[in-house]
Amino acid sequence: MIKGKKANSRGLPSEAALLKFIQTSPSVVGKRDIARAFGLTGAEKIGLKALLRQLEQSGKLAKSRRKLIDTSTLPPVTVIEVTGIDRHGEAHGEPVEWDERVAGKAPVVLIEVRSGEGIRPPAKGDRVLAKIEATPGQDYPFKARVIRGLSDRSKRVLGVFRLVKGHGARLIPVDKKARNELQVRSGDENGALEGELVEAEILKDHGRGLPLARVRARLGDLNDQRNISLIAIHHHAIPNEFSERVLAESEALKTFNPAGRVDLRKTPLITIDPPDARDHDDAVWAAPDDDPANPGGFQTIVAIADVATYVKPGSALDKEARFRGNSVYFPDRVVPMLPERISNDLCSLREKEDRPALACFMIFDKLGTKKSHRFARAIMRSAAKLSYEEAQAAIDGRSNAKTDVLLEGVLKPLWKAYGALMKARAKREPLELDLPERKLVLDDKGMVLRVVTPLRLDAHKLIEEFMIQANAAAAEELEAKKTPQLYRVHEPPSEEKVRALSMFLKTLDLSLPLGQVMKPKHFNQLLAEVKGKDYQNLVNDVVLRTQAQAAYAPINKGHFGLTLRRYSHFTSPIRRYADLIVHRALVSALGFGDDGLSADDISRLTETAEMISDAERRAMAAERETTDRLIAAHLAGQTGAHFRGRIGGVVGAGLFIKLNDTGADGFIPVSSLGSDYFVYSDVQHSLVGQRTGETFQLGDQVEVKLLEVAPVSGGLRFEMISEGRKGKPQSQRHGRSTRLSRQAPKSRKKR
């Protein structure tokens, strides 16, 4: 042992351990962070410096403003935009999803198109979906093999049409990365009006002045919020138009053949969905178990739309669904995974109409423990289409004409079975994070009327728990049959993240039981301990950031959040491609027909998992950005107004604020906080005044003033009205977890 070495030192980390720590760290990482995390001192720090230099030289790490960036962190499958052609005639590009504020300049990626794949070479401006491979030591740190061209974007741009006095018409691109405005010459306006959102064609560069563009399509007034979702669709390259071939294939589909299916038409299965749902892909039923060996137990059925009946492997519909990965839900529209002929007609479990289904029959005992399950291809007829609120009202004693006839024979047995399932859930102790969702209520013109947080009813929880049980049963069945499948994987949080959470909790005189296998119940105990306290939101936020992100994979790694050893997605094949793959796997495993998994499906499971995981992240980002833009447009006329909110994020550059009423997110630059210098503590998730100790911490409730609104980007800028909490003055030397903000803050008036 090196003389003076700390007792908790674990020695110089391996290359793999070091890269994993940088990848999974909840904040920006520097050498000090690494040394502290691994307990390095003395000569070990010299060894760390040499290791970091070696990783930089090999291309596995890069430095950006004293931050260490893991250059291998591009997703396995992602969208690349072609930025140019090099001297060898090879295309190169950059990832569309890349935050330069956090990770520095985007890496340059070599784009490969293999001959014989039927994909044309991409041109500058094109976007392609590509499989990524790190190539350290080469001219390019990554290479991308094109899976599919998304669209010809080399000559297309989405922007806001503006009239500039004395300069004619301009196009302001909505893409934040766009460097220049575009000039629209007289005659190329296509009737566009001031402030309209338009799609334009970029004309050949004449080499002088601003690039030229010709308006091709007028998408409407940007003040009409129904057009705002188009920005996210364009920016994230979400395919929102079906090809003629796909539409023709869907229109040519004939209704299913009922032969050989279990007949469930006399079983009163019902659908329970949001009131505005357009497609219905799951139905439920429950009744007391008549087996005397299972007193107090329940029989249940979860019937799911049999999409595999219509979407065959290798068809144009299948290829399109795989490419899209999932449906994308915006406040004003849905971009479906499958054409409406399938999603809203043939496969939607409409009331009183015969539909094909894949049914999961489950038996539970009185404590909610599953005793058995089986699957069957069935024909069903939904007895009723109910909303969550309608079903809940009936159970609460406020039934209407429709639910009154269902109450005793259908709804009450469902709720009794749900009560048993909740006993088993309580014993299982899944992660119980308080994550309220915001819902925009729009008027008939697509304008935001208000933002609400819907009540979470037992009806919601009932459907959720029934679906969880069916999903788990599907994974168990396929694993027992040794059939390839796609799991829904949620891994435990990394040791580094748990250690960082423990360090943070110590600042609040709280603790986490380290030295044992972390389970969701440990986080639940912590959340229960802080409930009702001033720092409840703060702890919830940090616990959420500690968790890993769920994804799809052909290899089982369990589902940490649900405390289930195996789990798949089976219940929504209309809107998720993963579920369609699981349906096909069940068809193959159980001999339900010749439309199960194809050899191609099986050979590409890993690639499919990567594609649809990426599509899911893309959809979430697009949905979030659209909501932000809609709320920003809603607040555009309220500059100067004061709002209550809480600090939702802390970085060295300032504070991210989430407003209480609308959930809108905005930013306060550190330069506007006050006359003090502020030190950033990544352990405490706070900015602390170097001289005064004034503290702004994640989760703090504050009052802010709205200074600026940018509806196109969804950006809001605030000014802090509240004074920070009293704290201990800090300096840059106060602990290794702090970093001084780069600029001196301006004076903030006392209020």
Task: Write a structural description.
By secondary structure, the protein is α+β, with helices and mostly antiparallel strands. The protein has 6 domains: 15-70, Orthogonal Bundle (Arc Repressor Mutant, subunit A); 77-151, Beta Barrel (OB fold (Dihydrolipoamide Acetyltransferase, E2P)); 156-222, OB fold (Dihydrolipoamide Acetyltransferase, E2P), CATH 2.40.50; 244-487 and 559-623, no CATH class; 492-547; 639-740, OB fold (Dihydrolipoamide Acetyltransferase, E2P) (Beta Barrel), CATH 2.40.50. It has 18 helices and 34 strands. It has a 5-stranded mixed β-barrel with strand order 3-4-5-7-6. Mean pLDDT is 85; it is low at 1-8 and 733-747.
Strand % is: 25-35%
Specify the helix fraction band: 25-40%
- Number of discrete helical segments: 18
Largest sheet: 5 strands, mixed, barrel
Ends apart, CA distance between termini = 57 Å
Total number of strands = 34
Task: Sum up the overall morphology in one term.
Answer: globular
User: Could you give the order of strands across the largest sheet?
Assistant: 3-4-5-7-6
Instruction: Please mark out the parts with pLDDT under 50 across 5 or more consecutive residues, or reply none.
Output: 1-8, 733-747
Overall residue-averaged pLDDT value: 85
Helix vs. strand class: alpha+beta
Question: What's the number of structural domains?
Answer: 6
Q: Please give the radius of gyration in angstroms.
A: 28 Å
